Amino acid sequence: MKATFILSFLVLLFFNTTFAQKQKKTLDIEHDSSITMMRKNIVRFNLTPYLLWGSGNYVLGYERRINDFQSVSLNVGSLTFPKIVNLPLGNGAARDFKNTGYSIAADYRRYFKKRNRGFAPDGLYWGPYIAYYRYNLSNNVSFDSLGGQPVQGEPIQATMKGSADILNIGIELGYQFIIKKRIAVDLIMIGPGYGIYTGKLKLDSDVEIPEEAEVLQEIKNGLIEKFPGLDGLLDGEEVNTNGDFRTWTGGLRFVIQVGYSF
Description:
The protein has helices at about 1-30, 45-55, 215-225, 230-235; strands at about 40-45, 60-65, 70-80, 90-110, 125-145, 145, 150, 155-180, 185-190, 195-205, 240-250, 255-260. It is about 20% helix and about 50% strand. The model is unreliable at about 10-15, about 20-25, about 85-90 and about 235-240 (pLDDT under 50).
């Protein structure tokens, strides 16, 4: 009788423990739908290019929730590169800088089920992304010497024109905060990728500029000195008076965005 009682007690204890563990596991993966109110859309403004390069850089985005833990997003905007009026050319001076540009980026996001309290688009996420950037620039340049020889009379006037196309593909890791069920703060913290960079530099002038003057090489070196981020784009590639360059390289992605959920 005593043995039967002990056995029954142990069986009951085992089932209670198992049930409690299952119940705890179930509670651990429950999610709070009130964080996002199950809203499916976010419109936002990308602060990153504006903070890095100032006014004239406006990138807007839209994120769409496609199920409880997945979403897709698209960013489109206009970009301008900083002026290069003080470009250190050595034998020349740059002025009247003009440029235009735009960017298009898209990503697919998977929000972690076990890490997040709420549903998409709230919490920690990862996913692939693709981003394309286009820049066009034009700069009037005057030279008082070429190839180490002074220019006789008035300085030579020329126009330096260029363009760059950048395509990046990679994987990102980020976190999106939903504040007061409406305000979204999106941080893409890590985004390693691989990209192709193509571009052109061309110098037009009424006066023939000899190849040995290496004018565009000076422009290239000046660009790298003023904007070190272009080192991977320009360095190591031959540039002449009507040159182009192409290179593959790795890169990172860091983005700060603020938006509105509805």
